[in-house]
Please model this.
Amino acid sequence: MLGEVPSLHAEKSDVDEAAGTLERSTDVSLNDFRSIHLPYCLDQQSDGSYVILNREYKPIGFASKDFVEYGKYPVCVKFKGLTANLAAKVSYSKSKDLDRIYLYNDGCVPTSNA
Model:
């Protein structure tokens, strides 16, 4: 299922071909590396595990607008020692909510200072 990772210096068409999931689209977000491959939030599942979601609310690396059933893919992770206080430390809003932990504000571009 996992293929060879394209070079970070690859041309856009090379990345599209290597990923096999990106199609030519006018939707900028699905062609934007940042919105697909960088974590946006952690979404807690009923078993206490988390799915690390991208800006499209899909597991990181998923370039799709379609509904994704997390149970069909190996995308859940368990974090040892994740408490409400720790969630508040990583949450951009300092929220202690463990159900969904947002890592940065939706209005910001986390790579703008990179």
Remarks:
- The chain has one domain: 12-102.
- The two ends are 31 Å apart (CA to CA).
- Residues 12-19 form the longest helix (8 residues).
